[in-house]
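Supplementary Methods, section 5.1.

A reviewer requested that the exact input to the structure prediction be made available. We therefore reproduce it here, unchanged from the version used in the analyses.
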Amino acid sequence: MSQFFTIHPDNPQSRLIAQAVEIINGGGVIVYPTDCAYALGCHIGDKSAVDRIRRIRKLDDKHNFTLVCRDLSDVSTYAKVDNSTYRLLKNYTPGAYTFILRATSEVPRRLLHAKRRTIGLRIPDHRITQALLEQLGEPLMSSSLILPGQDLPLTEPYDIREALEHSVDLVIDGGYCGMEATTVVNLTEEIPTLVRVGVGDPSPFE
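The structure derived from this sequence is encoded token-by-token as follows.
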């Protein structure tokens, strides 16, 4: 049976954030709010937790996971970023974008695209997410909360708990946070390429 925390979206309770991070560090899978929609998250180094997310979403081994980062210093640890890319990221983060970048050796191989060795990275503009990342001290391995057979993520925390109470360790109720995915931009080539249109304004990359 999963735990259920109601955390204030503007002033997250530090006690509950600390408990959530303890669950993550203990190998738990959590549901948490972002600036786009609710997402599944776990510790970046925990293979069994990643495998649980794969089972929840019925994902194959080719699925690209995303590292949710606190700031640009995290991004430069896990992705190869030149000066022009850094300036672009600085202009559009935090925000509702996922950027595909070439991964460094710090990224566990099981999280990479097998052939291209790329990784999705994003810095959300959401206080609960930022509080979790600050307490955790490293990125959160993440995947959108879209259940098998569905096209859109679940949006209501109580519905999420009912659907996943035996599959995850914690559901964080941070209120309504939307139901649309991030805008995805590929930065692995010289010219940025728009991969998916979502919440983030796509016009700078079109």
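The chain has one domain: 3-200. These observations are discussed further in the main text.
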